[in-house]
Amino acid sequence: MDIAALSMSLSQMKVAQQASISVMKMAMDTAKGQTIDLTQMLEANTKMMEQSVNPHVGTNLDIKF
């Protein structure tokens, strides 16, 4: 058994694993950003749909003393 070859092989596997983890972290960050954007878009669409169904709600404020 060649110790030097084993050491190089383990080192290469470690580098490959670190690269794989880095790519996975980037993908997770991208997915998180897309999820936040999608949530904000859905909230905005919900408000717009609510206004289109009931356009008069919330436009006038009657105050009597």
In what range is the share of β-strand residues? under 5%
Estimate the mean pLDDT confidence: 89
- Beta strand count: 0
Name the structural class.
Answer: mainly alpha
Total of helices: 1
N→C terminal distance? 95 Å
Give the uncertain stretches in residue-range form.
none
Q: Element order, helices and strands?
A: H
How does the overall form come out from the CA principal axes? Answer: rod-shaped
Report on this structure.
- It comes from Natronincola ferrireducens.
- Pfam families: YjfB_motility.
- InterPro entries: YjfB_motility.
- The chain has 65 residues and is mostly helical.
- Helix content is 78%, strand content 0%.
Descriptive key words:
Putative motility protein; mainly alpha; single chain; rod-shaped; YjfB_motility; 65 residues; 0% strand
